[in-house]
Automatic annotation (TrEMBL), chain A:
<dbReference type="InterPro" id="IPR051312">
    <property type="entry name" value="Diverse_Substr_Oxidored"/>
</dbReference>
<feature type="domain" description="FAD-binding PCMH-type">
    <location>
        <begin position="1"/>
        <end position="159"/>
    </location>
</feature>
<dbReference type="InterPro" id="IPR036318">
    <property type="entry name" value="FAD-bd_PCMH-like_sf"/>
</dbReference>
<dbReference type="Pfam" id="PF00941">
    <property type="entry name" value="FAD_binding_5"/>
</dbReference>
<keyword id="KW-0560">Oxidoreductase</keyword>
<dbReference type="GO" id="GO:0071949">
    <property type="term" value="F:FAD binding"/>
</dbReference>
<dbReference type="InterPro" id="IPR036683">
    <property type="entry name" value="CO_DH_flav_C_dom_sf"/>
</dbReference>
<dbReference type="InterPro" id="IPR005107">
    <property type="entry name" value="CO_DH_flav_C"/>
</dbReference>
<keyword id="KW-0274">FAD</keyword>
UniProtKB/TrEMBL annotation, chain B:
<keyword id="KW-0411">Iron-sulfur</keyword>
<keyword id="KW-0001">2Fe-2S</keyword>
<keyword id="KW-0408">Iron</keyword>
<dbReference type="Pfam" id="PF00111">
    <property type="entry name" value="Fer2"/>
</dbReference>
<dbReference type="InterPro" id="IPR036884">
    <property type="entry name" value="2Fe-2S-bd_dom_sf"/>
</dbReference>
<dbReference type="InterPro" id="IPR001041">
    <property type="entry name" value="2Fe-2S_ferredoxin-type"/>
</dbReference>
<dbReference type="GO" id="GO:0051537">
    <property type="term" value="F:2 iron, 2 sulfur cluster binding"/>
</dbReference>
<dbReference type="GO" id="GO:0046872">
    <property type="term" value="F:metal ion binding"/>
</dbReference>
<keyword id="KW-0479">Metal-binding</keyword>
Amino acid sequence: MALALQTFSTVKDANAALKAAGTRYLGGGTLVVRAANEGDVSVSGLIRSTEPALSAIIVSGGKVRIGASLTMAAIARHPDLSSLAHAARAVGGPAIRNMATVGGNLFAPAPYGDFTVALLALDSTISTDDGEVPIETFLAKREDNHAIVTAVGFGLPVDGGFRFLKVSRVKPKGVSVLSIAAVLEQAPDGTVSSARIALGCMADRPMRAKAAEKALLGRKLTSDGIAPALAVASDGTSPITDPIATAWYRNEVLPVHLGRLLLA
Amino acid sequence: MAKIPVQFTLNGAEKAEFIDGGTTLLNALRDKIGDTSPKGGCHQGTCGACSVIIDGELRLSCLTLAETCNGAAITTTSGLSQDGVLHPLQRAFLDAFATQCGFCTPGMIMAAKVLLDHTPDPSRDDVVEALSGNVCRCTGYEPIIQAVLTAARSNSQNAA
């Protein structure tokens, strides 16, 4: 089926064009073109914007703003984002990382969207022409979002404060069994003073492990210290079942991998 | 719907075609231009058989719309040999028996070429990582990894 691609120099004009029925925004193509290849007839037109701000990374004063068109490869090689490189490299193989954008990753259904798990742990904000919203709010209603995502913003974690783990069966790269990202802060005595943990594949979209976060507060990152958090790691999860793993399996192994991440 | 003009450089030669909107680069190369070296495997971005090099970066031609490649420089495996002499990667794949059915081979070679272009002396881990988006159902990967390492050594010897 023929697809009309329209390119606009501004996000404003692209947003206006996206109001037409059947149109989708084209980022790197790894979701939308794939859908068209699979015969998704709901896509009849593609819209994209070449506005330069969509391809800019700004790191200033401990704050990061990544344009939505930036690819995983660009993030992985950016010298100021080395703490996130591991999470960006977790997405696909080299060719996919040269195409997949941070904006598109926000819409990737489980078992994909590993970088969004990192963004959720980082307490990101999502920018559109309508303003900024917390990532949790955005993810909860992402199907209803009709404005082009222009950027994601977050505070750079302190050295060693950001942890990320992707578990897959195929090495070195494969589809996720699950992924976990955590931003931890510790008091001088080693106890956890702040914890934000995000999970991938444990629901249809990235989710917070709020019970585990709460159980970590005031605890040391030792086997005994993290035990209460691991005991509640699966609270509120609703994992996907796919050819990679069943929901039961994902729930069974989540505490094991969360434990490894916390003790690393 | 009106046809859309596209123009790019393919393996050093200027190409211009009229295509339908939404035509993937893979289909444009194979069905319009006649370069059948990129293979259509999964059409989902999973197998890597359609890999090509666009402006120096490895991309999946099955997920790239041809009209987004206007003005680009595209390299495919069919453009590697020069005057009938195989590229060191092609020679190494033959010598190491790194190709059985051959379907994945053009994508593997494209991924390997990008690696060697940027990392002339790769480690085994570098090779495994570079090929991690390409699926082979025949060889078990080891002959392919060895072929890429052999081609790297061949390149460095030729450069010495």
